[in-house]
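Practice problem 4.
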């Protein structure tokens, strides 16, 4: 059981994901400010640093809801607040997302570019700094596979 944030894709850019917003949520307690993906990222980050335990953010929603974009915002939060050590693979993970999206996407009635894959992104930390990340994909809709 944990905190749930319902994110809605406004289908237009909003100034609520800028770097100054990241710093506004950094170090704040959950509930001090409006619900936001940065509030969840901050809570997970604080719990990880305070107790030294792994944390998970599960981002779920319908096609076109903005799951991939929300994951990118959370990763950007971690790298901005914690910083990166060395040549972090985080940038490679963020850069590879459009390539990963291109494979296995299909047009649906709700979204022109709907992914057929789920993604598991693991971010590595050393103390408070991001050291790298890996991304794993898994096929969600095996019924769509007709040929090799």
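Answer key:
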């Amino acid at each position: 059981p944990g905190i749930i944030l319902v994110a809605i894709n406004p289908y237009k850019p909003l100034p609520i994901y800028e770097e100054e917003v990241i710093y506004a949520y950094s170090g704040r307690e959950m509930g001090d400010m409006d619900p936001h993906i940065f509030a969840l990222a901050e809570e997970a980050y604080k719990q990880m640093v305070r107790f030294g335990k792994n944390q998970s953010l599960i981002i779920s929603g319908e096609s076109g809801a903005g799951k991939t974009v929300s994951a990118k915002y959370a990763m950007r939060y971690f790298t901005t607040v914690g910083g990166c050590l060395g040549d972090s693979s985080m940038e490679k993970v963020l850069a590879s997302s459009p390539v990963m999206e291109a494979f296995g996407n299909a047009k649906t009635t709700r979204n022109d570019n709907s992914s057929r894959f789920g993604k598991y992104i693991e971010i590595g930390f050393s103390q408070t700094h991001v050291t790298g990340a890996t991304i794993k994909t898994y096929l969600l809709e095996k019924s769509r596979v007709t040929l090799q």
